[in-house]
Amino acid sequence: MSDGVVLALTAGEPAGIGPELCLQLAMGKRNVGVVVIASQQLLEARASLLGLEVRLHPWTPGTEPRKDAGELSVLHVEGCASHQAGELDTANSRYVLETLKVAARGCLDGDFDGMVTAPVHKGIINDAGIEFSGHTEFLQELCGVERVVMMLATEELRVALVTTHLPLKDVPAAITPERLSQVASILHADLKTFFGIEQPRILVAGLNPHAGEGGHLGREEIEVIEPTLDKLRDKGLQLTGPLPADTLFTPHWLNDADAALAMYHDQGLPVLKFQGFGRAVNITLGLPIVRTSVDHGTALDLAGTGKADPGSLQTAIRVGEQMARSLKSAKKRET
User: Strand, coil or helix: what is 86?
Assistant: First the structure.
């Protein structure tokens, strides 16, 4: 591999907008090497549907991906049973997961410097009889790490999550001292490694309204969150909180912070998506590889129309490249 960054880009759910986002990417010249991990026939069918003239080039490890407008390097994956835009098919589910495995293993083997993922459809994968709760958990298991952290980011805001895809009723029990400590430590370390922030300043939300209001609205803050944060502060982490979530996400607090840590999915992500939907990036921290993703779903209603906005994918690729370069630099310093 050359000194340049090479990113794997999985095309996601075949019925969704992922394949056409990959093709739209090829309409302009790129500064970073991108290899699409997908069925070549799927990409050809979607290009034909949209009237896009894109030349697809088979890619092999160690070669430089095509970067010119109208050209796209592809690592073909077999098993895509249906190419129909907007029509989900359970027969595609194992193919979708295989694209993720190919990309992640390529990163672990050094063929790629990072992976970027277009959206998948969790429901149809589960309908196929395969347990799947999301990219984050899937890559955690595949890479064999104990804990990963989901973080979404825009230019102005970064929000990480203590818990991710859990029913709300299960969240309090999942917020243990061990889990909170692991998540905060990963967030702290990866803000340093991937974003060059030497002393990250992290705001931590409480679980309950008003951060429990002294125990009157819940005791998780008193019994779990506050003691854990105190121990982490003793180790040098700059943590502010637990703060009420309805005031944490205001300029008074955010102007002096590098990231916010929310206790559950819909506590932090609605704020971020309102602030920057379509230009945000989903980042998995705690992995031995770089992984970024778009901030939106499969958008089946837009698939095949040519109206899908590639903004979030472009952001995911840009951030993925930055993170990959930072990781390379960190590894060089270690040696």
Answer: coil
The Cα 171–Cα 193 span in angstroms is 29
Residue with tokens 């029913």: 167
CA atoms within 13 A on the CB side of 226: 14
User: How many residues does this entry show for the chain?
Assistant: 335
Report the chain's mean pLDDT, rounded to a whole number: 95
Q: Are 49 and 304 in contact (CB under 8 A)?
A: yes
330 φ, ψ to 5°? Answer: -65, -40
- Alpha carbon distance 278, 312 (integer Å): 5
With contact defined as beta carbons under 8 Å apart, do 240 and 204 qualify?
A: yes
Name which of 114, 112, 137, 111 is nearest 125 in CA terms.
Answer: 137
Tell me the per-residue pLDDT of 240-279, one tens digit each, with 9 for 90 and over: 999 999 999 999 999 999 999 999 999 999 999 998 887 8
Decide: 245 and 262 in contact? Cβ < 8 Å.
yes
Instruction: Please list the residues that pair with 149 across neighbouring strands.
Output: 285
- The answer to whether the beta carbons of residues 295 and 152 sit under 8 Å apart is yes
Q: How far apart are CA 198 and CA 135, in angstroms?
A: 28
Place of tokens 């818990």: 163
pLDDT at 2: 45
- Assign 67 to helix, strand or coil: coil
Cα 118 to Cα 16: distance, rounded to the nearest angstrom:
9
pLDDT of residue 3: 60
Query: b vs e for 36-58, b when ≥16 Cβ sit within 10 Å of the residue's Cβ?
Result: bbbbbebbbbbbebbebebebee
Instruction: Identify the DSSP state of 173.
Output: H
**At which residue do the structure tokens 């590889």 appear?**
289
Q: What is the pLDDT of residues 279-295, one digit of tens each?
A: 889 999 999 999 999 98
State the pTM of this model: 0.91
